[in-house]
Amino acid sequence: MYYIGNHLSSSGGYVAMLDTALKLGANTFAFFTRNPRGGKAKEIDKEDVQKFLLKARENNFGKIVAHAPYTMNLCSAKEDVREFSKNIIADDIKRMEYIPKNYYNFHPGAHIGQGVKKGIEIIANVLNDVLSPEQTTIVLLETMSGKGTEIGKSFEELREIIDKVELKDKIGVCLDTCHIWDGGYDIVNNLDGVISEFDKVIGLDKLYAVHFNDSKNECGSHKDRHEKIGNGKIGFEAMKNFALHPAFLGLPFILETPNDMAGYAKEIAMFKDWIKK
Ligand code: FE
Ligand code: FE
Ligand code: ZN
């Protein structure tokens, strides 16, 4: 089974997102748990959630991949930002229980000059404070491009965070194809090598979701600019090979490409066409 979808606006609630996803031909989707730049989350509409859960099941939807806001930086050098970020992730994890057994993905953080080691330590400490054995959500660290002082630009950095997290079954990885390419992993010429590197360093059993994006820039550019599938430097063939690789079978693939809804529908149809053959 394959799961494909794209990032959607959450402003209309869960049922609205599901209806949009259905229209686009998707069977999963992603959304921001709150304004990507702001703080406060909307009140949960329990009726909307119940309808959504039913309808998602009826339509055989896969795991949904919620995305934390960009303003969240668990390892900021500023204490008030760290505090704010910890409150957001704690609150988001609580809210995710309204749609149990899905995924919550976040950018590990930017250390802002404190150093990678210190950043990793802070991130892991926060995770150990906010994760609980009762939660059904798996929290995913996103692979990053290494822009600025971003942590998570190498598989080793993510592995170090996971190593320090006590509740191992609540933590995993979301692989962003644009980010690992920009981070220096050559999925065009050496896809198998990159996958076995991931397996060796982190373990493929820790991979729960894929952000499926082409990139505007060269491998190792550390830029993080997404491109439409096939229009970027990764290119059509390599994106297709990635999608069809057995290592990713059954994972939710989320498009975060610069598209309008018609563009997403096209990419979803293209993806489904690859899988069929
Ligand atoms: Fe992201
Ligand atoms: Fe992403
Ligand atoms: Zn990105």
Describe the fold and architecture:
The protein is an alpha/beta fold and 277 residues long. It has a single domain (3-276), classed as Divalent-metal-dependent TIM barrel enzymes (TIM Barrel). It contains 9 helices and 12 strands. The longest helix is centred in the N-terminal third of the chain and has 18 residues, at 79-96. The two termini are 14 Å apart. The mean pLDDT is 97. The structure holds fe (iii) ion (2 copies) and zinc ion (ZN).
Main beta sheet, described?
8 strands, parallel, barrel
- What's the mean pLDDT score? 97
Strand content: 15-25%
Show unreliable segments: none
- Class by helix and strand content? alpha/beta
CATH architecture type: Alpha-Beta Barrel
Overall 3D geometry? globular
Query: Which CATH C-level class is it?
Result: Alpha Beta
What is the domain tally? 1
Total beta strand runs: 12
User: Level of helix content?
Assistant: 25-40%
Distance between the termini: 14 Å
CATH superfamily: Divalent-metal-dependent TIM barrel enzymes
Rg, nearest Å: 18 Å
Q: Strands across the major sheet, in which order?
A: 1-2-3-4-6-8-9-12
Summarize the structure.
This protein has helices spanning 14-24, 46-58, 79-96, 116-130, 155-164, 177-182, 191-201, 235-244, 261-276; strands spanning 3-8, 30-32, 65-67, 103-106, 109-110, 138-142, 150-151, 171-176, 207-211, 214-215, 226-227, 252-255. The chain has 277 residues and is of the alpha/beta class.
